[in-house]
């Protein structure tokens, strides 16, 4: 039994904010009674059992699609990916194989899913993230088969703190911030689907909290999404003061209108991460100076064939036109859009581009590496981007993901420059950070993808709960690589931005700017908190914060030191 005398539980903070409310525990399992009532062997033969499976998976996929249509941004993307996973032909083939020896469809579904869980877990890296999604899909299919409502997060009857072992994308994407005051999970890391969608929704969130599911339902919880602490049955007076202060701070943040700058006027570009025309138009309503990351591959996840250059130009044009020369903005001609070429592979398979059967796809042929054996794939995409830039009049920068060598950077930059556009590369591989000064001899800018840079630097799967402390972008080794890259940009007089999830952390944003980062790109929901935090700190304070973070022993100490400096 957790009591008020218990020490606070600790985890990895991913969305700032202070929230207080009763714990509502999520146990997303199909009722054992419903499974017991189901006669899984009642089908005439394997074909009939497979037909029931097909009907169940179609119902599950249709449910994901409906939710995706009602969502936007990251939520819509992960729901669409879940729909594709539910309909996956490989999974169906595994289920069909098991049905040949036993027409118990529930056993066949379990065996088929277990087969792919083993494969994904063995791959490690980003593929392991899909295990949670796959297990959630299994529970939903089973529910459809036994005639029970699909499990997951229901609509709370009163505002609460949602506590779960983990949350599937379909659950997180449907959360109502008015009723879900905060999220606490035992599993997951700072770049998990739960964390990414929580950022988009603006719900305070702490992940990787050991022992969270031992909290009795209804227990009063105080969640601090900055410190990463969960207090049980806290003192009512101090709790009310902290929640009130946080609410006042959020109200103040909402009034920030840009442009990005420190308290003493040093400019910092605040940009948006987008996936398509809809998300770009939504981002335009925020006080941003353009797009720092246009994830082009997300437009093609469900495509079996490569779009033509003309079709690609139309798709890219929808995003570019949202920030075109004729778009009225308070920031005028300071706007630009950074387009990332296909970052397909690993956890983002694109049928017409990616390789299958790699033992470790996170370290395999992904991103720019896809063009090594298929240069036309990149050439046609660049032609489409150039055509869209010409048609919209938008200042367009183009960057390549997963660049590891200076030679790769130069070859890419030469192609982009030949089309009259600015060229840059993503700093995700540690070698790119260590060679940043040489990279900047051949490209016009760098953009740091902190999600992959952290994973590769710390050799830690971002979905491994036991290693969540290693996949924290506040890790000193990761910050050191960012500092090296930023300093290279300062010496070269060229821009260096951050477009990974780290840019959405207001405290860390100040640290990054103090290192010399010139732009920060994030989900639109994070723009005002980050912009307001920067506006409250001078450049000297940001530099002091950077020094404190770099000299800290671990992420928790770094956060505490920076919080104390910027308070």
Would you give an account of this structure?
The structure is a single chain. Helix content is 45%, strand content 14%. The protein is built from 21 helices and 16 strands. The chain has an eight-stranded mixed β-sheet. The chain has an eight-stranded parallel beta barrel with strand order 9-10-11-12-13-14-15-16, surrounded by six helices. A hairpin with a 4-residue loop joins β7 (220-224) and β8. α2 (46-70) runs antiparallel to α3 (73-86) and α20 runs antiparallel to α21 (555-566). The radius of gyration is 24 Å and the shape is globular. It starts with 8 loop residues before the first strand and ends with a helix. The model has no long low-confidence stretch (mean pLDDT 86).
């Amino acid at each position: 039994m957790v009591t008020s005398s218990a020490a606070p539980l600790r985890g990895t903070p991913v969305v700032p904010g202070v929230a207080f409310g009763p714990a509502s525990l999520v146990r997303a399992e199909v009722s054992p009674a419903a499974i017991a009532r189901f006669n899984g062997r009642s089908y005439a033969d394997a074909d009939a059992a497979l037909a029931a499976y097909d009907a169940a998976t179609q119902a599950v996929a249709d449910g994901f699609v409906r939710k995706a249509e009602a969502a936007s941004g990251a939520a819509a993307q992960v729901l669409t990916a879940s729909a594709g996973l539910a309909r996956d032909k490989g999974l169906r083939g595994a289920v069909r194989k098991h049905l040949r020896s036993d027409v118990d469809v529930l056993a066949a579904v379990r065996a088929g899913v277990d087969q792919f869980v083993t494969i994904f877990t063995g791959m490690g890296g980003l593929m392991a993230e899909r295990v949670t999604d796959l297990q959630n899909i299994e529970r939903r299919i089973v529910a459809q088969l036994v005639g029970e409502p699909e499990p997951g997060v229901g609509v709370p009857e009163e505002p609460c703190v949602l506590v779960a072992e983990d949350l599937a994308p379909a659950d997180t994407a449907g959360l109502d911030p008015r009723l879900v005051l905060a999220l606490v999970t035992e599993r997951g890391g700072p770049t998990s689907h739960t964390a990414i969608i929580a950022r988009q929704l603006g719900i305070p969130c702490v992940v990787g909290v050991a022992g969270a599911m031992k909290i009795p339902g209804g227990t009063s919880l105080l969640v601090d999404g900055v410190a990463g602490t969960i207090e049980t049955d806290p003192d009512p007076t101090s709790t009310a003061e902290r929640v009130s202060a946080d609410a006042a701070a959020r109200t103040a943040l909402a009034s920030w209108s840009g442009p990005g700058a420190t308290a003493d006027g040093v400019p910092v570009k605040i940009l948006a991460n987008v996936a398509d025309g809809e998300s770009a138009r939504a981002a335009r309503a925020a006080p941003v100076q353009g797009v720092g990351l246009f994830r082009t591959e997300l437009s093609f996840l469900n495509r079996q064939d490569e779009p033509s250059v003309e079709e690609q130009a139309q798709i890219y044009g929808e995003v570019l036109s949202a920030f075109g020369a004729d778009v009225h903005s308070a920031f005028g001609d300071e706007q630009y859009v950074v387009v990332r070429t296909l970052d397909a592979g690993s956890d983002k398979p694109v049928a017409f581009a990616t390789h299958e059967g790699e033992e470790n796809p996170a370290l395999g042929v992904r991103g720019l590496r896809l063009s090594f054996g298929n240069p036309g794939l990149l050439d046609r995409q660049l032609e489409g981007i150039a055509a869209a830039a010409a048609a919209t009049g938008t200042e367009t920068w183009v960057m390549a993901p997963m660049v590891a060598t200076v030679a790769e950077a130069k070859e890419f930059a030469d192609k982009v420059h030949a089309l009259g556009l600015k060229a840059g590369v993503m700093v995700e591989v540690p070698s790119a950070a260590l060679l940043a000064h040489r990279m900047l001899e051949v490209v016009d800018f760098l953009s740091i993808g902190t999600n992959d840079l952290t994973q590769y630097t710390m050799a830690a799967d971002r979905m491994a709960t036991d290693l969540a402390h290693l996949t924290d972008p506040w890790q000193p080794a990761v910050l050191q690589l960012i500092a090296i890259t930023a300093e290279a940009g300062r010496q070269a007089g060229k821009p260096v931005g951050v477009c990974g999830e780290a840019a959405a952390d207001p405290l860390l944003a100040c640290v990054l700017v103090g290192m010399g980062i010139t732009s920060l790109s994030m989900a639109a929901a994070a723009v005002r908190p980050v912009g307001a935090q920067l506006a409250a700190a001078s450049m000297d304070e940001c530099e002091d914060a950077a020094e404190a973070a770099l000299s800290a022993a671990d992420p928790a100490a770094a956060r505490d030191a920076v919080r104390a400096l910027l308070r």
